[in-house]
Amino acid sequence: MQIDVHNLTYAYGQKLVLQNLSLSLQRGDYVVVRGKNGSGKSTFVKCLLGLNAVKSGMIFYNHQDINNFKDWTSIGYVSQKMEDFNYEFPITVNEYLSVSSLRRTRQSDRLRMLDKMGILELLNQNINNLSGGELQRTFIVRSMLNQPKMLILDEPTASVDVKSAEFFFQTVNELNAQGVTVVIVSHHDTFERMNYTHVLTLHSDMSFEFETRERHRQKEGIQS
Amino acid sequence: MTLSFFTDLFQQDFLFRAMIAGVILGIIAPLLGSIVVIRRLSFIADTLGHFSLVGISVSLFLSTLGFPYFLDHSLYLGIIFSVVGGLMVELFRRSYKNYKEISMVIVISLGAALSAIFFSLSKKTGSLFNYLFGSILTITNDSVWLIFYTAILVGLLFLIFGKQIIAVSFEEAKAKLLGVNVNLFQILFMVMLSVVVSVLLESVGVLLISSMMIIPVAAAMKVGWSFKSTTIIAIVFSELSVFFGLWSSHSIGVPSGAAIVSFNVLLLLVVSTIKKLRGNKRIPKDVPTPNLFD
């Protein structure tokens, strides 16, 4: 999926968080978004997801204005914490993935993903009984279920063990190689597991840098 | 006494009608109730019930103005007003995004006030008791059919949109990413709920509607291990309450709606106590190893 962001400005009330942010991503690009707390990373992600209404500036998906964009199921999303998820009512992992899947998604695909993430045995477990890491792995499986054309990932592996994180990044790399555009928010300074093509650095003063992988590595003094 | 209840059930039309209505409501009330609980809208049934009561009081008022049709068909205006109340809740919910309960207080207050005004104008405050506490034993054939059609409608909507309804209820903010038109979903759900609340009003009364929808679900949540099991257990609890409620109403003459709700609460207390005694564990279950190549 192609993404074009033009002069995106976003404020919570009077407090400006993003100002005149512009970037362009082609199908299959992989951008790492980084910055300190409060620099606007999550705000940017929420704008991309249409959860923050864009009032100043524009976002286009495949040349279509985000306000008219309809194909939202082609976007897979994982956040650091699923703060909006209702955890108290009983629902099993299988039921949750089933109601979140499109018709074309097969049960065998769900099971394979769960297996690879090491949580197949949790299939019939109530989501309320899962640990933070298990829950996050469930959300990761869900984000990849519906053959996404774009993945938006906000600190997706923050509470996940190393092995699952490795599988996760490997799967993201595989999807990316097939043309899936990836936007990932990361606090990590090194991105050795990611096949990123660009880095977007947001600063607290609302300035930003959007660099190619080569430019970024050159600047950071990373050997190829 | 029990035997006479069963004999009467098949000999007395009013009791049979009440049982049929109760059984159907016992399915749709907790089915919708589970969605209402997930969406943290437990007060919504009370709110819509109060607005449905406005429709009924307006009907009674219109009948005194020379429109006798409204006297026998007060439920229809009840449904229309309930839908209006539901849409008002949605409207206010959008104005107070972080204080969603405010919307219900506004609508419930307006509903109570308008009901009082129109009941008073119609000079038929005597019937108020029936609408407050319900009278499933006096339910008419027409109302039983209306309940039946409502159940078909709810069943069809769940059959077609069940996946989306459940998914959106768990993650309302992400509804868009699930390919669901949020506005259309909210309005459809509110209309469906308004209709169900209105048909419940005649049976259990405005003050007891939410208990019929919410309490079986609250009890089932204590022991359910999945969405499906919780909903089925809630329906079983609800049906048990309908049966024992009607039986006690018939046997010792207590108001039927109140009896049904009392059994609902009793079941909740029993389930909560058992769960506490068993150490707060959900019912154990076998977790089969799934077949990867289905």
Largest sheet of chain B: none
Q: What structural class do helix, strand and pairing data of chain B support?
A: mainly alpha
Given the structure, what is the number of helices of chain A?
A: 6
Q: How many alpha or pi helices of chain B?
A: 12
The shape of chain A is globular
| Approximate helicity band of chain B | over 70%
Biggest pleated sheet of chain A = 6 strands, mixed
State the CATH superfamily name of chain A: P-loop containing nucleotide triphosphate hydrolases
Integer-rounded radius of gyration of chain B: 20 Å
* Topology-level CATH name of chain A: Rossmann fold
Q: What's the number of domains of chain B? A: 1
SSE blueprint:
The complex is a heterodimer of chains A (224) and B (294).
Chain A: E1 3-12, E2 15-25, E3 30-35, H1 41-48, E4 56-61, E5 64-65, E6 75-78, H2 93-100, H3 107-116, H4 132-145, E7 150-154, H5 162-177, E8 181-185, E9 198-202, E10 208-212, H6 213-220
Chain B: H1 2-11, H2 13-38, H3 44-64, H4 69-72, H5 74-95, H6 100-122, H7 128-133, H8 141-170, H9 182-204, H10 209-223, H11 227-252, H12 256-277
Helix pairs in contact in B: 1-2, 2-8, 2-9, 2-10, 2-11, 3-5, 3-6, 3-9, 5-6, 5-9, 8-9, 10-11, 10-12, 11-12
